[in-house]
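General statements about sequence and structure are easier to judge against a single worked case. For one protein, we set the task of working out the structure tokens from the amino acid sequence alone. This step matters because it turns folding into a mapping between discrete strings. The amino acid sequence and the backbone structure tokens for this protein are reproduced below.
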Amino acid sequence: MRFLIDAQLPPALARWIQHQGHDAQHVFDIGLESASDAVIWTRAAAAKRVIVTKDEDFAQRRGMAPAGPAIVWLRIGNTSRGYLLTWIAPLFPQIVAALQRGETLIEIR
């Protein structure tokens, strides 16, 4: 699975996902740290990457768009990198399974 991690999440999340055996990039890795949502959306769609974000705008866009990248919307407030990684670890297999089933908007609370 291929992921693109949005700017409000730490680059460490991309590294953690890589350690789980998946291809992951952070927007900082590809020079998109200041890019608009539209640019990130287009880039993710072209590269067949799932956007992992805390940004509700991506979730709304996915709900209205007939095509485009899948979105994993993390509904977690501001937190430390360590807590984020601990929080997502037990949820990640479920996220991957949902994506493999073809779900295009996955909301994680």
